[in-house]
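Tip: read the tokens left to right.
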């Protein structure tokens, strides 16, 4: 049992960014980078490399206003690097890999800091992405639009949790002294697959 526990702990630390973000990150800033992130997600779900790269360019433009002092500077760089890789991607496979890295950073930033916008943003997980290693992303609404498979398996994936708006959840969690967990349990199947 101990090796299994160790493996799970190792997996948690190697597949997710550090829990928490520098207080220099504010909901207003998250709101400023969300539209371009969603533009990349929508474009990749539509197998559209050019628009995905355009979204990456817009994201990088918005990142010029990112916090750049102390620990926040490294976190900002962790957001920039995958966006730069996506902008310079030679093919859609490379773009999707870069988007995966960006989604790890963006989803935890959104989940921890929040946003001032009221779009219904959900964290989605596809267990089959990248040779069944799995990948997550953020999108508007619960109807799965998979940026890692596009038209091949557009609906493959399951909603994990709603990230925004979250006023009621935030109030409830603070009331009980609980902290939002970085991951929800993965579903053993993906009911949207094949639609």
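Filled-in amino acids:
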């Amino acid at each position: 049992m101990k090796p299994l526990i160790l493996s799970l702990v190792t997996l948690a630390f190697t597949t997710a960014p550090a829990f928490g973000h520098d207080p220099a990150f504010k909901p207003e800033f998250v709101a400023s980078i969300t539209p371009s992130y969603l533009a990349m997600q929508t474009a990749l779900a539509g197998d559209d490399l050019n628009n995905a790269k355009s979204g990456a360019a817009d994201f990088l433009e918005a990142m010029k206003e990112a916090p750049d002092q102390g620990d926040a500077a490294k976190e900002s760089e962790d957001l920039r690097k995958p966006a730069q890789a996506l902008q310079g991607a030679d093919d859609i496979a490379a773009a999707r890999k870069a988007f995966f890295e960006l989604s790890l950073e963006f989803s935890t930033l959104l989940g921890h800091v929040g946003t001032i916008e009221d779009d219904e943003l959900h964290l989605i997980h596809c267990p089959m992405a990248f040779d069944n290693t799995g990948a997550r992303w953020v999108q508007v609404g619960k109807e799965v639009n998979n940026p890692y498979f596009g038209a091949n398996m557009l609906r493959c994936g399951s909603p994990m949790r709603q990230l925004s708006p979250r006023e009621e959840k935030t109030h409830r969690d603070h009331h009980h002294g609980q902290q939002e967990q970085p991951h929800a349990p993965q579903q053993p199947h993906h009911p949207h697959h094949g639609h």
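The mean pLDDT is 83. Residues 25-175 form one domain.
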